[in-house]
Structure formats: structure tokens, C-alpha cells
């Protein structure tokens, strides 16, 4: 090898410009959509919550959240969200358990999961109309119970335009969402765990109390947090069903932004900011607990 060849071989290779993969082009629509409908509106809400009508910085909007009427609206929303999340988790878990481990026919699984996928996204005005047509004062179920069985549910205090009625309506999409989330966790329960517990003399109750539930507990708690956030942020169903008869935060927020009498956009921003904080905490708890449950299943 000559000296010239040695110099050429020892020289560092020419730097190459990194090529931009075309695969990144596929996420451009998602990024644009997220910026336009998620990131920018959220920033607008957060900044608007700390501004007054003249555009200056203020904490009055946040302080107004602690007035009795607004605190009562938050408390009702939290109660509805907790009730619908708890009942949705309980009923959804029992249905998923019966489908996966309870010995139901295999043909039930596919229709139930398909229905759950559709029902978990069914909300808004159609859902409110469906429940009014079913459980309203002249609803189908109401008339059947009254005319065939002599049971007037409204005489016993039931009202579809109340706390219990809205909670019942939310269960229509809360239960299917629970089924969709907890089914993979139940599928991940290994048969060897049950067999090992039986060999060691554990009963079925002891297996669920000491083995299964501790493993599923992060999933159950995480799903409860997700269902809470899902219910707390629902506005279209509540407004279409109850109007202004039930003072919950989404309806109060709508009144502050769009109302003619109570119009105060910056107070509406503060209400929305409070909802973002509460739902953000709930979603963070869900993601954290979901990660822990996935470690157990793996």
C-alpha cells in the first residue's frame, strides 16, 4: 500500500446527510388533527382561565370556582361519575368474567364484544332520546311496568331527569367500556395459577382473594379512574337529557360560554380548566395502574 492509499484509507468517511423517512409523512394528519382539536384548544382554555375581559392576568376566575353554586355543581358531577364508574366496573367485570371464565358458550363472546365496541361510543342526543323513549314518563318500559304489572316507577321517586336517571344513562356506555378493557386482563390470567393454587389446597374464594384479585386490582382501579374521567367529561348526553334541570359542571360550563344571561367566557374557561385537572389526574392514575397490571400479565 502506498502512502497515498494509506492517507485515503485513514481519512474519515464523508458525512452523509440523514434521510427523512417517508414513514413520518403518515403521522402528519394525526399531528395536525391533535394540534387543531386538542393542543391548541387546551392552551386556549388554560390561558383564558387566567385572563380577564381586558386580556390581563387575573386569579379571579379561579377564585370564583370556589363559590357555593359552582362547588355544588362539581360535587354533583363527581358523585355521578363515581356512581356510574363503580356500577360500570362491577357489572362490566361480572359480564366479562362470565364470558371469559364463567363457562358461557363461545358464541356469546363475539356478539358481546361487538356490541360493547359500538355501545361504548354511543352517546349524545341519540342516547338521551333512547332513554327518554324507554324510561321517560311515557317510555316503553315505564308503560309496560305500569299497565302490565301495576308498578309506577315514577310514583316510587324515579325520574329520568335526575341524578339516578343520568347515572343509569351513563351506564349504557360505561359497562361496555369496562368489558372491552377488562377482557384482555382476564384472558391473561394463566390456568397454571389456578392449578397451582388448587394443588396447594386453596379454595376458589381463596384463589380469587389471594391470587386473582391482587393481579387484577391495578386494572380494576385504573379502569375505574378511566370510567370516572369518561363520565365526568360527558356533556352532550347530560345536556340533551336533563337540559338545565340538573346543575352539573358540563351544563354550567355550556351556560357560561353560550348563555345570554350568565355569559362569562373566562369563568367558563376556568370551569373547563378545573375539569381538565380532574380528568387529567384520573387518566394519569389509569395509565400508571395499567402499566403495573401489564407487568403482572407478562
From TrEMBL:
<keyword id="KW-1003">Cell membrane</keyword>
<keyword id="KW-0812">Transmembrane</keyword>
<keyword id="KW-1133">Transmembrane helix</keyword>
<feature type="transmembrane region" description="Helical">
    <location>
        <begin position="58"/>
        <end position="76"/>
    </location>
</feature>
<feature type="transmembrane region" description="Helical">
    <location>
        <begin position="207"/>
        <end position="228"/>
    </location>
</feature>
<dbReference type="InterPro" id="IPR035906">
    <property type="entry name" value="MetI-like_sf"/>
</dbReference>
<feature type="transmembrane region" description="Helical">
    <location>
        <begin position="153"/>
        <end position="186"/>
    </location>
</feature>
<keyword id="KW-0813">Transport</keyword>
<dbReference type="InterPro" id="IPR000515">
    <property type="entry name" value="MetI-like"/>
</dbReference>
<protein>
    <submittedName>
        <fullName>Acriflavin resistance protein</fullName>
    </submittedName>
</protein>
<comment type="similarity">
    <text>Belongs to the binding-protein-dependent transport system permease family. CysTW subfamily.</text>
</comment>
<feature type="domain" description="ABC transmembrane type-1">
    <location>
        <begin position="74"/>
        <end position="286"/>
    </location>
</feature>
<keyword id="KW-0472">Membrane</keyword>
<feature type="transmembrane region" description="Helical">
    <location>
        <begin position="22"/>
        <end position="46"/>
    </location>
</feature>
<dbReference type="GO" id="GO:0005886">
    <property type="term" value="C:plasma membrane"/>
</dbReference>
<feature type="transmembrane region" description="Helical">
    <location>
        <begin position="82"/>
        <end position="100"/>
    </location>
</feature>
<dbReference type="GO" id="GO:0055085">
    <property type="term" value="P:transmembrane transport"/>
</dbReference>
<feature type="transmembrane region" description="Helical">
    <location>
        <begin position="234"/>
        <end position="255"/>
    </location>
</feature>
<feature type="transmembrane region" description="Helical">
    <location>
        <begin position="267"/>
        <end position="289"/>
    </location>
</feature>
<dbReference type="Pfam" id="PF00528">
    <property type="entry name" value="BPD_transp_1"/>
</dbReference>
Amino acid at each position: 500500500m502506498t502512502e497515498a492509499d494509506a492517507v485515503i484509507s485513514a481519512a474519515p468517511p464523508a458525512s452523509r446527510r440523514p434521510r427523512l423517512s417517508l414513514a413520518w409523512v403518515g403521522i402528519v394528519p394525526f399531528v395536525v388533527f391533535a394540534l387543531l382539536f386538542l393542543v391548541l384548544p387546551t392552551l386556549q382554555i388554560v390561558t383564558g382561565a387566567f385572563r380577564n375581559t381586558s386580556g390581563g392576568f387575573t386569579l379571579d376566575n379561579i377564585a370564583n370556582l370556589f363559590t357555593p353554586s359552582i362547588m355544588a355543581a362539581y360535587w354533583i358531577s363527581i358523585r355521578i361519575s363515581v356512581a356510574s364508574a363503580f356500577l360500570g366496573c362491577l357489572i362490566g367485570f361480572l359480564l366479562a368474567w362470565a364470558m371469559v371464565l364463567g363457562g358461557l358458550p363461545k358464541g356469546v363472546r363475539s356478539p358481546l364484544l361487538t356490541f360493547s365496541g359500538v355501545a361504548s361510543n354511543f352517546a349524545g342526543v341519540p342516547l338521551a332520546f333512547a332513554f327518554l323513549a324507554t324510561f321517560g314518563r311515557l317510555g316503553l318500559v315505564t308503560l309496560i311496568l305500569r299497565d302490565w304489572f301495576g308498578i309506577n316507577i315514577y310514583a316510587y321517586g324515579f325520574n329520568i331527569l335526575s341524578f339516578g336517571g343520568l347515572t343509569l344513562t351513563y351506564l349504557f356506555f360505561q359497562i361496555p367500556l369496562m368489558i372491552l378493557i377488562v377482557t384482555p386482563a382476564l384472558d391473561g390470567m394463566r390456568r397454571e395459577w389456578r392449578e397451582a393454587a388448587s394443588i396447594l389446597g386453596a379454595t376458589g374464594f381463596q384463589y380469587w382473594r389471594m391470587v386473582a384479585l391482587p393481579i387484577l386490582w391495578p386494572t380494576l382501579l385504573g379502569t375505574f379512574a378511566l370510567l370516572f374521567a369518561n363520565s365526568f367529561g360527558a356533556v352532550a348526553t347530560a345536556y340533551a337529557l336533563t337540559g338545565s334541570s340538573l346543575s352539573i359542571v358540563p351544563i354550567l360550563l355550556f351556560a357560561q360560554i353560550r348563555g345570554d344571561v350568565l355569559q362569562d367566557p373566562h369563568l367558563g374557561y376556568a370551569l373547563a380548566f378545573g375539569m381538565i385537572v380532574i380528568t387529567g389526574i384520573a387518566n394519569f392514575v389509569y395509565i400508571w395502574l395499567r402499566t403495573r397490571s401489564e407487568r403482572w400479565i407478562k
